[in-house]
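Can you make up a protein sequence with its C-alpha cells?

===
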Amino acid sequence: MSRLYRRPPASPMTPGYPGSATPPAAPSSRVRSGGGLKGAVTYAVGFVVAIWSVFLVNLLVFGGDLVFFGIHPLDTASWWGIFAAPFLHANLEHVLSNTVPGAVFAFLIGFSGRRVFWEVTLITVVAAGAGTWLFGGVATNHIGASGVVYGWLAYLLIRGVFNRHLGQVVVGVVLGIAYSGLIFGLLPGVPGVSWQGHLFGALGGLGAGMLITSDDPPALVERRQLKKARKALSSGRR
C-alpha cells in the first residue's frame, strides 16, 4: 500500500537552499552532444560532400550558371547570397583549395560538439557575408567557402586563450604555423580573390572565439558556477 510522507522543510544548511553555505554541484565532465570523434568526422565529411555536390551539380546540370547566386555587394535583391555563396565555386582549382583546410578545421571544431560547430559557423557565415556585401565593391560577385574557412581558422587560433584550455592553445599554435601563408589572403591586391570575404570571415571567427561559451571545458564551467554561487551567497547575506 502506498503512503504519503510530507517532506520536511529545507534548512538553511541544505545544499542549494537560498543562503546555504554549500553551492550547487557543478555538472560532471562529459562529451558534448554531437561531438567527439564521430561528430568531428561527420562535420568534416559533411562539409566536403556539401561543397562538392553543389560544384558538380552546377558544372554538369547548370553549366556553371549557379555562380550568379553569390554575393553582389549593396544589391538589396540578392542579400540571400550571403548564405548561398559558401557553397558555390568557380572551378576545380577553387573548390580544391577549400576542401582540405575546410575539412581539417570542420573536424577540429566538430570535435567540441554540435552546438559549438553551428555557433561558430553561423557567426562566421554572417560576418563574412555581411562584410563582403557592404564592402566588396559594386558590380562584383563573390563566391566560395574561403570566408568560412578563414573564420574557422581564426576561431581555432584563439579559442584556447579565451577558454583557458592548454590543448586548444597547442592546436592553435600548430595551425598558426602550418597555415601562416593564409595571412596574405587577408590583403587586397590579388585579382579575382575576395580578400573582403577572408577578412570579415576571420573577424567573425575571432568574435566567436571571444564570445561563445559552449566550448568551455568542464573545469572552467565549474569555476564560473562556483564564482556565481559565491556571489549569490554574498548578496543574500547583505
About this structure: The radius of gyration is 23 Å. The helical segments are 36-60, 81-84, 92-110, 114-135, 146-163, 166-178, 195-211, 218-236. The chain has one domain: 37-224.
